[in-house]
């Protein structure tokens, strides 16, 4: 790993060293320019005017692995990226914001501290990740905030602005998840919270990567700035009023980002119907801003009560619900003339187990079903253009027999710290699932190439 970052030049003449350094960066910049920015053309993603379809993954901890620190592991990061590239997975959705917090399960260290300073070590971890991704022709979706508690997120911004303790349902039985969600959603109207949030966004967008010497806003390895992970309107008060507040925040924040970075896409990070007060009309409203480039949906069969691992017979109903949900997203995106991405979906191992050695027959069946839907939709020229499964666990493993995360753990298996470690993880040893992922990733890449060839005739 160190040899890649700090090569040994003992055998090289001093006079040759400047030439080698110049050549190295010339090759890197040339590859970036060839890579091109991901753009939107009606309901398609394009790179250099050619269609871009993809199978990607959620790799939220990538910057943490990339940090040159006790909690990082650059050797593992390089191995993970190599395996993902070999599998055909070249789109990564990454957490690039976390806030110092007092939650029961804090993501530590954070990108941003309570006193307002930023974690340069972790930011350089993100630099390193993007540097390595560019070498592999990968694209990143960078998440700028979180509606949920496990990275600090919106509720932490509210706490800082109001000087209040956060209602934490993981600490107190007297606090409900509705209490937490309503507190988190108050973020949209707090001026001080928005100012702190925008200051962080501006810092990141204008940051210069220490390895590439290129500002983030000019880096083609970045595909998208995502406003937040699963932002939701408040459930308090009238639905129409809550959606108006939420949609205003989406529009104004996306406009702010586009004003300082015209090169990259911006999207919401929304779950779709489940994240917009159970209404596709509200999903459309959340994405209708001209500054939002594409529609996102998420899919969680177990969390939403569709699938029960103890009752395999629920699989058929799960597939029906999945088809209906994805079609709802496709229809919504078509009405807006924008692409659609299923940027999160996950599925448990057989019997709801967490150990890497347990079977995954049901998960494989569901993954194949979803990927086939995506491929068929692309062939039918629908709005669906990409999919990111949740999540990449790779070499990570739970560090404790009860599969719970504990402060100080740096295993990074893909599941948030508040969930059992291994719940929805795809491990590097999950050969049957990896084969399915690889098959469809390469099929979508072929579809992109085939379309490119047709256009060039």
Question: Helices and strands in order, then pairings?
Answer:
Layout: H1 2-5, H2 17-35, E1 38-41, E2 44-47, E3 50-51, E4 54-58, H3 62-66, H4 74-87, E5 91-95, H5 120-135, E6 139-143, H6 153-162, H7 177-185, H8 191-205, E7 222-226, H9 239-260, E8 265-267, H10 280-287, E9 295-299, H11 314-336, E10 340-345, H12 361-379, E11 384-389, E12 392-394, E13 426-427, H13 431-456
Parallel strand pairs: 4-5, 4-11, 5-6, 6-7, 7-8, 9-10, 10-11, 12-13
Antiparallel strand pairs: 1-2, 2-3
Helix pairs in contact: 6-7, 6-8, 8-9, 9-10, 10-11, 11-12, 12-13
Kindly estimate the percentage of residues that lie in beta strands according to DSSP. Answer: 5-15%
- What do the pLDDT scores average to? 92
| Tally of individual helices | 13
Q: Could you give the distance between the termini?
A: 44 Å
Q: Work out the number of β strands.
A: 13
Percent range of helical residues: 40-55%
- Strands of the widest sheet, in order across it, are 8-7-6-5-4-11-10-9
Unreliable residue stretches: 1-33
Cα shape: globular
What string gives the helices and strands in order?
A: HHEEEEHHEHEHHHEHEHEHEHEEEH
């Amino acid at each position: 790993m160190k040899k890649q970052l700090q090569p040994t030049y003992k055998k090289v003449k001093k006079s040759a060293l400047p030439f080698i350094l110049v050549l190295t960066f010339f090759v890197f910049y040339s590859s970036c320019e060839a890579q091109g920015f991901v753009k939107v053309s009606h309901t398609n993603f394009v790179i250099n005017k050619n269609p871009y379809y993809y199978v990607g993954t959620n790799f939220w901890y990538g910057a943490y692995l990339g940090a040159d620190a006790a909690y990082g592991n650059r050797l593992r990061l390089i191995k993970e990226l190599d395996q993902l590239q070999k599998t055909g997975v070249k789109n990564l959705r990454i957490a690039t914001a976390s806030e110092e917090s007092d939650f029961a399960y804090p993501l530590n260290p954070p990108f941003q501290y309570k006193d307002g300073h930023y974690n340069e070590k972790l930011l350089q971890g993100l630099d390193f990740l993007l540097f390595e991704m560019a070498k592999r022709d990968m694209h990143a979706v960078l998440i700028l905030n979180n509606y949920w508690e496990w990275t600090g997120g919106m509720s932490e911004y509210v706490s800082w602005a109001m000087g209040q303790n956060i209602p934490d349902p993981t600490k107190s039985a007297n606090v409900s998840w509705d209490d937490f969600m309503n507190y988190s959603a108050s973020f949209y109207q707090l001026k001080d919270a928005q100012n702190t949030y925008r200051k962080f966004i501006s810092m990141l967008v204008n940051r210069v990567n220490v390895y590439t010497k290129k500002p983030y806003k000019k880096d083609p390895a970045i595909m998208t700035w995502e406003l937040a992970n699963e932002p939701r309107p408040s459930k308090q008060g009238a639905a129409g009023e809550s959606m108006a507040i939420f949609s205003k925040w989406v529009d104004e924040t996306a406009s702010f980002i586009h004003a300082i970075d015209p090169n990259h896409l911006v999207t919401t990070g929304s779950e779709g119907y489940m994240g917009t007060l159970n209404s596709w009309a509200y999903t459309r409203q959340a994405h209708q801003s001209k500054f939002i480039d594409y529609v996102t949906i998420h899919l969680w069969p177990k969390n939403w009560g569709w699938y029960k691992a103890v009752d395999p017979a629920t699989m058929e109903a799960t597939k029906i619900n999945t088809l209906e949900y994805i079609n709802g997203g496709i229809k919504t995106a078509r009405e807006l003339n924008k692409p659609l991405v299923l940027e999160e979906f996950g599925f448990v191992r057989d019997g709801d187990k967490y150990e890497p050695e347990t079977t995954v027959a049901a998960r494989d069946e569901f993954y194949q079903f979803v990927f086939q839907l995506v491929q068929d939709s692309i062939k039918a020229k629908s709005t669906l253009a990409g999919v990111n499964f949740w999540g990449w666990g790779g070499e990570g493993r739970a560090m404790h027999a009860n599969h719970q995360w504990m402060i100080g753990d740096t295993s990074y298996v893909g599941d948030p710290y508040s969930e059992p470690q291994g719940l929805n993880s795809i491990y590097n040893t999950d050969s049957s699932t990896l084969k399915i992922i690889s098959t469809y990733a390469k099929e979508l890449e072929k579809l992109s190439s085939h379309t490119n060839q047709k256009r060039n005739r």
